[in-house]
Amino acid sequence: LFHDSMRIILEPLFAAGLNGVEMVGGDGVVHKVHPILAAYVADYPEQCLVTLSKYGTCPK
């Protein structure tokens, strides 16, 4: 469920990264940009959820 939800949420960002999006810069000029998701910040319980790991266990 989590991964399907993230796929739906991030789909517009994926398309924008491939095709580019026109955005106005601070100088007022229109630029074509290709945004990317560079990092995903999560606390330990969220990391376990994303990786489908068991919470509180030590990997060996």
Automatic annotation (TrEMBL):
InterPro entries: Plavaka. Pfam families: Plavaka. This is Uncharacterized protein. It comes from Dendrothele bispora (strain CBS 962.96).
